[in-house]
Amino acid sequence: MEKFQLTLLLKIAGIGSASGLLYQNEKLYIISDNSNYLYEYKMSEEKLNKIALTENPKENIPKKEKPDFEAISHKGNEIIILGSGSTDNRNKVIQYKSSSKKAKEKDFTEMYKLIKSQLFITDEELNIEGLIITEETIYFFQRGNGESGKNGIIFSDDVAQSPKFKFIPFDLPKIKNVTPTFTDAILVDDKIYFLAAAEDTNSTYLDGEVLGSIIGQIDFKTLKLEKTIQITEKNKFEGLTLYKKTETSLEFLLCEDNDTDVLETDIYKLNIKF
């Protein structure tokens, strides 16, 4: 993972504070941490649709009230969107079926309480930023940007019945003496690719100075860190999705949370050659 090229691919007007991406069937689905919409961008037509995830949806929701949707994944034709759990009003999970174009909202509070109690994570420390769903397991990517720095992967083989959660910690290479922490992750074949950002803050709630972002690779079977590379010194990348794949390279799409009220989102393309 030594050769890479990061370029600005496109700008999308109408979306602010992008926090997650999912590319499917030539459509780019985007979530925002201060919005109740799922944004569907048709790449070939350069057309943006807004999908309401709740009744009376809003954009640029104030920090204290925002749902903080940070993780997006899929299972079959169903898109799963998850709040970070970092405050009481950020405990929602949304299930959206593209076939029926219907969204269903559920409360994830009890599941987050179970995770915190079993893994000794405080209310102030929980901050889920990535989600991978397989047939057997759900993997939550905990951003350890709180005071204890508890950064790692949370998973259970039986979430539906009586889950027993496990935690695998990850201590990532520092950027300017600050440890990057997870901001998103996806599964490609037998490898997990993740983003992590270094931000000069010890709070899951308050933003700090952005010092850069890395991409890394984890072996899916062993959950061992294999490679990391710093891809920027100024961007806080929070969304990652696979765009194209060849025998010699992978192309990802990335989004950046600009932490402003401006309704415009930059989408970057990251090409990695093996």
Descriptive overview:
The chain has one helix and 20 strands. The protein is globular. The mean pLDDT is 92. The termini are close together. It has 274 residues and is mostly beta strands. The chain has one helix at 109-119; strands at residues 3-13, 18-24, 27-32, 37-42, 47-52, 69-75, 78-83, 92-97, 102-107, 128-133, 138-142, 152-156, 166-169, 181-188, 191-200, 209-219, 225-232, 237-245, 249-256, 264-273. The strands form five sheets. The protein has a four-stranded antiparallel beta sheet with strand order 1-20-19-18, with no helix packed on it.
Order of SSEs: EEEEEEEEEHEEEEEEEEEEE
The fraction of residues assigned to DSSP E strands is over 45%
Indicate the radius of gyration in whole angstroms: 17 Å
For this structure, the quaternary state is single chain
Structural class: mainly beta
Residues in helix, %: under 10%
Total beta strand runs: 20
Low-confidence stretches: none
Q: Kindly report how far apart the N and C termini lie.
A: 6 Å
Described by the principal axes of the CA atoms, the overall outline is globular
Largest beta sheet: strand ordering = 1-20-19-18
Please report the number of helical segments: 1
